[in-house]
Amino acid sequence: MSTAAPDSTSYYPAAPTGLRRPAIIAAVVVAIVIGVSIAVGHVWFAVFFVAGTVAIFVNAILVRRAVEVVAAQEHPRKQALAVNSAVRLGAITVLALVAAFLVRPDGLGAMFGLAIGQVVLVLNTVIPVMKGLRKQL
């Protein structure tokens, strides 16, 4: 196992923040889900799945805006960003849970849409960063 020299500087590759690639990937997944849902007779599952996926992308846009606002402040505070994110994620989760319970079983599409959308967004960020870090070794 090797360790970095004490005087060496660490370089972390920039994480991609664009939403174009994840939106395309999510659109392909949504199209597949819509096709399968219609084939098995659960159209509302597809509708809720689309709503959950869209909610995740709207959340990502709102996170970016919140970070820009907090970073532009003279003395940025992490607490404001954390509270903002917690309230937003709590509201999205509550709405998805309400849909899941009130419109059973098709309302679960909202939860699956949230999950798949989040996985696409996270992998879009993590994979390029991991590749960049691997090149440094």
Structural write-up:
The longest helix is centred in the middle third of the chain and has 30 residues, at 43-72. The chain has helices at residues 20-40, 43-72, 78-102, 108-136. The protein has 137 residues and is mostly helical. The chain is flat and about 55 Å long.
Q: Which range best describes the helical content: under 10%, 10-25%, 25-40%, 40-55%, 55-70% or over 70%?
A: over 70%
Number of strands: 0
| Poorly predicted residue ranges | none
Q: Shape, please?
A: flat
Distance between the termini: 12 Å
Primary descriptors:
137 residues, mainly alpha
Topology:
Layout: H1 20-40, H2 43-72, H3 78-102, H4 108-136
Structure, briefly:
The chain has 137 residues and is an all-alpha fold.
